[in-house]
Amino acid sequence: MPENIKDPVRTEDELLYIEASKAYNEGEDIISDAKFNLLEEKLRKEGSTVVNYTHDQLAEGDLDEETLSIFPVYTWEDVYAWIWSTKEEDFILSQKVDGVNAKAFNSQDAGGWQARSRARDGRSAFDYTEALRHILPTQSENFGVVGEVFLPEEYLPYFREKYDKPDKFKLPRSAAIMLLRRPQDYTVEDLKLLQFRAFSTTLPSTTKQEEFEILRQRGFSTPDFLETLESNITENYQRLEAATIPLDGIVLEVNRKSFVPEVKGKYQSSQVAVKIGSYADKKHEAIVVDIHIEPARGNFGVVLQIEPYVMPDGATITRVNAFNIGIVMRKDIKKGDKIKFYRKANGMTVLVYGEKKSETVA
Predict the structure, then answer these.
(1) What is the rounded CA–CA span in Å between residue 145 and residue 335?
(2) What is the pLDDT of residue 64?
(3) If you classify domain 94-275 with CATH, what class do you get?
(4) Does 142 or 61 have the greater pLDDT score?
(5) Least confident range of 14-28, 202-216, 227-241, 307-321
(6) Domains 94-275 and 281-361 share a fold
(7) What is the pTM of this model?
(8) Type and span of the H or E element at 251
């Protein structure tokens, strides 16, 4: 393990991050995913180096490629800087589906598809086999695929009404989680409404474009994609922005599969997630009605209760994470004040207290 992970001078937040990472690697959760993501964002803003390591590294294991994420970029300047750093000429743009990551392997010995969630190791994965075996195309040989699962938005009202859950089934991704984790609560006909978009396979290919084409030939739906050169990247990016499925960006990656990427922490240099235009962080405004100071494993976090704010997709937001009391004091936030916040994912929202290069106002 790199020596600087063992740095004895660590803040309480960094120690919590390391402890939570180790626990996750052993199949346990000591804090929720939402709290962990907010903690990671806070540490990243503070310049902590601990967030550059994978959960497996923090647990003193070998680098586990299953933990790798796609590095986000928010400006065209950063996009072109990445392109030039690769020294490549041929790239692929593909839609980044905002769904639930799932891995499936077709095993003839096991009688067909076996599926599970993404995890740092097999011990902490959810079994998605029952939910996905109804929608994955039948295959005659052993191979694996990786993709994103979501429930199309047009079916959300149907599920809320049928299962009498008016406060659930608000978003395609969160609805898919409910069906994937508890398929026994739903009918086979309902499970068949899930959609799977495959973006990777163990079948051999020489380019990313060929990999997508192989998946389609095998009967899988994939994200929309375009081969692109640096000269027409903005035009092709805009062509992929329009979509009828949930997206949270556009993936830009090296087309050549023989490209050997560098791995830095959780990211590899062969791809980036472009979040410009409709995918840039959007600021929202709301009125503070209360301020809550809540304990969190030896620390205290601050949550701002706001007047109910309805997002464009129908989700209602009532709480905004303000990180710590120091930020609230510096910004002199009081009841009745109007604040700005970002929505990071589903119901997770964070206070705006510093400006980004690329953002839009909702």
Answers:
(1) 50
(2) 35
(3) alpha beta
(4) 142
(5) 14-28
(6) no
(7) 0.67
(8) strand 247-254
Pick from 176, 136, 180: nearest CA to 155: 176
Residue 193, pLDDT score: 97
Q: In terms of C-beta density within 10 A (0-12 exposed, 13-18 middle, 19 or more buried), how is residue 297 classed?
A: middle
The CA angle 299-301-303, to the nearest 5 degrees, is: 165
Q: What is the dihedral of CA 12, 16, 17, 23, to 10 degrees?
A: 160
Phi, psi of 279 (to 5 degrees): -105, 0
Distance between the two ends of the chain, CA-based, in angstroms? 44
Every domain of the chain and the residues it spans:
3-63, 94-275, 281-361
Residue labelled with tokens 């472009």: 274
Average pLDDT for the chain: 82
Distance from the Cα of residue 214 to its chain's centroid: 25
CATH architecture of 281-361: Beta Barrel (2.40)
**Distances, alpha carbon 32 to alpha carbons 23, 85, 125, 201, 297, in Å:** 12, 36, 15, 30, 12
Q: Is residue 284 predicted with pLDDT exceeding 80?
A: yes
Percent of the chain with pLDDT over 90: 44
**Can you tell me the mean pLDDT for 181-207?**
95
Contacts for 353-360: CB closer than 8 Å, 24+ residues apart:
353/323, 353/327, 354/45, 356/74, 356/281, 357/74, 357/75, 358/74, 358/75, 358/275, 358/276, 358/280, 358/281, 359/74, 359/280, 359/281, 359/282, 359/283, 360/280, 360/281, 360/282, 360/283
Average the pLDDT over 7-17 and give the result: 78
> Residue 281: is its pLDDT beyond 60?
yes
By the 8 A CB rule, do 249 and 273 touch? yes
Q: Which CB contacts under 8 angstroms, 24+ apart, belong to 58-61?
A: 58/5, 58/17, 58/18, 58/21, 58/22, 58/25, 59/21, 59/22, 59/25, 59/26, 59/120, 60/1, 61/25
CA distance 148 to 144: 14
